[in-house]
Design goal:
By secondary structure, this protein is mainly beta. The protein has one domain: Porin (Beta Barrel), CATH 2.40.160.60. The chain is built from five helices and 17 strands. The chain has helices at residues 4-17, 34-38, 255-258, 293-296, 426-429; strands spanning 66-83, 91-94, 100-112, 115-123, 127-128, 157-173, 176-192, 213-227, 232-239, 243-244, 265-275, 278-287, 318-327, 333-342, 363-374, 377-394, 406-423. It has a 14-stranded antiparallel barrel with strand order 1-3-4-6-7-8-9-11-12-13-14-15-16-17. The protein is elongated, with a radius of gyration of 22 Å. Keywords: Cell outer membrane, Membrane, Signal, Transmembrane, Transmembrane beta strand.
């Protein structure tokens, strides 16, 4: 059996050190494994692999003994257009770095028919932008500072990476299953080229151009699943905020002296088996971005950067709708389709600062499959396309950095996930087309 503590440590390090780009639901991914991505990120009421821990830990009790490993190649295209006076470089400006690896893995084991435990490790989408003249198709100096580059500097951007490790326990009581999973998180952050904001910071020496700064923290995810009939299941799950230690090297940038907690979220879903081998899924998710000051406070707050209650990125809460379908009727093949939609977290008034984090995509179309190379092992594949979305704003704050300048943020992305799942008891106990 796989030595999972060693594997978990490796995956956590890999997930943390992988450089991530803007994800899909703000800076959360729509799903963390090939199965979850293939069905649009749905699954609060239907769990089939250890990465159920990332959605609803109650589902562990329905997952056979298995482990899964995967890697996502995430490719975003992001940047902005700008016109009018201001210190942001005008014209069409595109961020560099177009490919990012994001690993995931999990292990689950039943104690008996009514209880199970599991461990999962996965990386979040994070935020990344890398602006330099090498990636600009139409680049001019800013008339307000006389220099070429975004924010009056030659190179600018941010890099936020997040990784999670969670261990969960689930127990079934008749038709009701309950699950509980503490979550440990590690995040690292780096900012470049933000010197122009120094006069507006309470700690300009901790604003930009430092090396990667680490932050650690913890929270908890819990959930329930209820089997209404043999074919119909419902699920509800939620995560507390993950309370993180502050970024000390960037306490002149983030509100509340460097605090950057991970926001809470809640999910509710339903799953219906049209056939024993054909399942439809639908989830609703709400992410509380506005409750994290460094993320949710308006960027136009008339307080210094880094101050208690100071400016943030101005992100509002978002709602996500996810639907998916999974067909397991072939001997060796499982097919999946999915779609998810979320409203945009970025307000038009906050476009200037969000040049650093243009997470504006709304539609996500996905598909995937699992091919069983043996009765107990499968190759898992998924792909997700997010068409281009934009947000435009004219900064009307007289004291703001770009008064009356129009800025349009854009983002589109494509990702492919490949994985391997091995089920320890599948060959002797369950046919390929059954529940897993």
């Amino acid at each position: 059996m796989i030595p999972f503590p060693r594997l978990a440590a490796f995956l956590l390090a890999a997930a943390t050190l992988s450089t991530h780009a803007e994800a899909t639901e703000g800076y959360f991914l729509e799903g963390y494994g090939a199965r979850e991505k293939g069905v649009g990120g749905a699954g609060a009421a239907d769990s089939r692999d250890p990465l159920a821990l990332s959605i609803n830990p109650a589902g562990l009790v329905d997952v056979n003994d298995q482990y899964t490993l995967g890697l996502t190649a995430f490719s975003p295209d992001r940047g902005y257009w700008a016109s009018g006076p201001g210190f942001v470089a005008p014209g069409f400006v595109q961020s560099g770095r177009a490919l990012f690896p994001i690993p995931n893995g999990g292990y689950s084991q039943r104690f008996n028919q009514t209880s199970a435990w599991g461990v999962a490790v996965y990386g979040n989408g994070g935020m990344n932008t890398t602006y330099s003249p090498n990636y600009v198709s139409e680049f001019f100096g800013s008339p307000m500072c006389g220099k070429t580059g975004v924010f009056c500097g030659r190179n600018a951007g941010v890099d936020l990476n997040q990784a999670y490790i969670t261990a969960g326990y689930a127990q079934r009581f008749g038709n009701l299953s309950l699950g509980f999973a503490p979550v440990l998180a590690v995040q690292i952050f780096k900012a470049r080229g933000l010197e122009v904001f120094a006069p507006f910071s309470m700690a300009p020496e901790q604003l930009t151009n430092h090396t990667y700064n680490w932050s650690v923290g913890a929270g908890v995810r819990a959930g329930l699943q209820y089997r209404v009939t043999d074919s119909l299941r419902v699920g509800v799950a939620g995560s507390s905020p993950i309370w993180m230690s502050p970024f000390e090297n960037y306490k002149g940038l983030f509100a509340n002296r460097g605090d950057f907690d991970i926001p809470a979220n809640i999910t509710a879903g339903v799953a219906y088996d049209i056939l024993p081998t054909f399942t439809l899924l639908a989830d609703w998710k709400h992410i509380f971005y506005s409750q994290v000051p460094s993320v949710g406070n308006w960027s136009t707050e008339q307080l210094p950067l880094g101050a208690i209650g100071g400016p943030g990125f101005g992100w509002r809460d978002i709602n996500v709708i996810k639907v998916g379908a999974e067909y397991r009727g072939f001997e060796k093949l499982t097919l999946r389709l999915g779609y998810s939609y979320n409203n945009n977290p970025i307000n038009p008034r906050d476009v200037t600062l969000n040049i650093l984090a243009p997470a504006v995509t709304k539609h996500h179309i996905s598909g995937g499959l699992s091919y069983f190379v043996t009765p107990s092992s499968s190759i898992d594949l998924a792909a997700v396309v997010s068409p281009q979305a934009t947000v435009s704003g004219v900064e009307r704050t007289p004291l703001g950095p770009n008064p009356m300048r129009t800025i349009t943020l854009y983002l589109n992305s494509f990702e492919v996930t490949a994985g391997w799942t091995h089920r320890f008891d599948a060959a002797s106990t369950t046919p390929v087309t059954a529940r897993f």
